[in-house]
Amino acid sequence: MIIVGLTGGIGSGKTTVLKLFKKLGCDTYIADDEAKKIMNSDIELIAEVKKIFGDKAYKNKKLNRAHIASVVFNNKEKLNSLNAIVHPKVRQHFTNFVKKSKAKIIIYEAAILFESGSYKLCDYIVTVTTPIEERIERIMKRDTISKEQILQRIKNQLDDEYKIKNSHFVIDNSDAFDAKSQVSTIYNILLKTIKK
Ligand code: ADP
Questions:
Q1: Burial letters 21-54, b for 16+ CB under 10 A, else e
Q2: Which domain holds residue 72?
Q3: pLDDT per residue over 40-94, tens digit each?
Q4: Is there a single domain that holds both residue 191 and residue 115?
């Protein structure tokens, strides 16, 4: 079994690419989604989040994402503190997921794969790229978020240049390219590395 980290900036198409890997038989894990679930259920973590963001961090026992987002928007320190307490929990959860999986290839999707240190869990790393203008257009279609908020999030993440340099594979998911055939090529290369 191998673990493949899948990263890329917001709106680059990570989840779209993840689904293509899943269709080929990989087990898939979306770190952001699991982090949200854990932040709503892990009592120890809930207490730590409240320490950083106050009681307002939870509303009716659910994470108050609007409050958290408004605080971290201009406070990188708090964003880092949040990541520092959430990511070890996600990694632990992922380790259990891996133990239960029978797949040959597990794909771990995280926008902040490098920033969170989770790249260390991975045997291979795939970065998805799309030009920023195209990403902004796609996100504005997908979410109710302003261009300013998108640019702020992009600013809080490592740039593509760093990600590409530190990856084994790069998928170009701009409109001009066919992500499906790139995924299939990478999948076949990965399978060969297991058989060796
Ligand atoms: P990420 O997980 O990196 O934030 P998503 O996979 O959610 O990105 O893609 C962002 C949005 O762009 C989604 O609404 C998705 O359907 C759309 N999208 C993804 N890939 C393409 C593509 N090649 N062409 C057009 N739209 C795309």
A1: beebebbbbbbeebbeebbeebeebbebbeebbe
A2: 33-102
A3: 999 999 999 999 999 999 999 999 999 998 898 889 899 999 999 999 999 999 9
A4: yes
